[in-house]
Amino acid sequence: MPYSVRIEQFEGPLDLLLQLVESEKLEITSVSLLQVTEPFVRHVREHHGKIPPEELADFLIVAARLVYLKSKAILPTLTDPELEEGPDLETQLRMYKAFAQAAAKIAALANAGRSSYGRIYRAPKREAPVFTPPNGVTPNLLRELYHRAARRLEPLIALPKTSLEHAMTVEEKIGQLRDRVSTLMHSSFHRFLSESQNKHEMVISFLALLELIKLRIVRVEQDGHFSDITLTLTNAV
Amino acid sequence: MTLDALIEALLFATSQPMSARKIAEAVSQKPPEVEDALNALQERLASSGSGTRLVRSGQTAELVTHPDAAEIVRAALKQELHGELSKPSLETLSILAYRGPMTRPELEQIRGVQSSLILRNLMLRGLVEHKEDARLGQPTYGVTVAFFKHIGLSGAEELPDYSELRGHSAVEQALQELVASHEHSA
Amino acid sequence: MTLDALIEALLFATSQPMSARKIAEAVSQKPPEVEDALNALQERLASSGSGTRLVRSGQTAELVTHPDAAEIVRAALKQELHGELSKPSLETLSILAYRGPMTRPELEQIRGVQSSLILRNLMLRGLVEHKEDARLGQPTYGVTVAFFKHIGLSGAEELPDYSELRGHSAVEQALQELVASHEHSA
Predict the structure, then answer these.
(1) Closest to B6 (Cβ–Cβ): which among C8, C69, C123?
(2) Sign, Cα dihedral of A67, A71, A73, A74
(3) In chain B, which residues have their Cβ closer than 8 Å to the Cβ of A157?
(4) pLDDT of C39 over the 90 cut
(5) H-type helices in A47-88, by residue range?
(6) Mutation site for A-interface testing, chosen from C86, C111, C125, C127 by largest number of A Cβ within 10 Å
(7) What is the pTM of this model?
(8) pLDDT, tens digit, for every residue of A66-84?
(9) Nearest-angstrom CA–CA distance, B138 and B159
(10) For chain C, which domains are there?
């Protein structure tokens, strides 16, 4: 499917998050975000194949930030500078909501059909077609400008591929994790996270972990309030 | 909105002289009402310090610029025709030289920007013209022979690295996306 | 003839959006005088019951028909209603209309999603354009005069709840944090 069409079909992660919060008739608070973490992650999982590849990473990042919030609630010592970076999700969602409401008003204006129209330019009749070449244009300048325009397209064409490379599939990661858990049996949550190479991988690890817990493949154990979480493979596999 | 304002908008947008009968049809009013409104419009433009005026000859009416602005307006239009080409115009010219003839959507797909005004300007200057072959139901545009001659070439083939750059893979792929999106939306 | 009438005649004759800089050149006046005259023109058209109005976005101005005349003008031009804008398009246009010009990372910070394709799409449709000022080494984007024509407003100030959203404190905070994190990672 061409990139120009694909983009129109799916709304972003904040839109999804806002819809979930509103469908539960909740205010936007840190607590309500915790409440919609599960449906959000479930939605991302279920619509995985339908999310445009260039947007997948953004959905995963929001999912990761939600899971991070939730994990922090049970494991207060957990901190990750990267996931803490930038405005918090709550602020971001409030801001998004303000613009989503404005967009609805703009939509009403657009649909009212009250457009303005400019003039149609009509060349004066008496002026015969003129030839007024610009100064200083050379074949080499044309070459340079054309080449530059063509080069400008390259990142756009590479976009779906680079985005996909960014967002490794959750399923793949689950497989890896399952293998790791089978061999190790015990795996520390902290170590698990620290082994992630970058933010994106961490995001996926988070999701995969959540997945495994929900599928009852992994059991999460925590000895004390501030101690590390231990991951254990259950008999389900 | 008053009838005279409505008629003003109509004459403004269509940009050509219109007969009172056609105006009456367009605004769904009777000729006497239109006649009154045309008088009101003429008077309002004259008394409100407008830069435009209503000219009437026989049964037709036309909006034109005020004669006091004639000199400046003429100079500006001349400047548009003879001044330096803007960067976007030069880029458009180079894309049409290497890759033309092409349709406007194809050109825009490569530039990534809506380009109708630029095409209009390049055509007014005789640097770009409609070519014979239409594609996807759209007219195609290419640079004129006169322009090639002006830069000392007998045709596109003599442009530096012509065959290599004409088939530039990024350009090729962008144009294929356009075809694909057409098929998709069809 | 007053400067605002002269500019009205100029915009009428060139029949396209013009930047304040180009207008200033054409009428041989300084930018502040042109700015004042554009305001006066906008005011005069609004208060004299004109069928036309001045639409402005950033530094660009265009003379267009009044939205009250939309139906009649559309019929006379044999134009169809504009196609509906998708939800992501509306969202992006709204953010840029209220808060623009802004860079792509700033836009993405608010939308929470990668936006290069939607920006490209809107630029192809002529609803969004690069604006002159770059920030953080990035180009900035804003809505065009064509966008305001489409929704029948004369400029950003007429947007619903404009001042409220323009100064939205959450937006302010988020964008500031974005700048901070940029500086941090730089």
Answers:
(1) C69
(2) positive
(3) 170, 173-174
(4) yes
(5) 53-74, 81-84
(6) C111
(7) 0.84
(8) 877 776 665 555 666 666 7
(9) 26
(10) 3-68 (1.10.10.10), 84-185 (1.10.10.10)
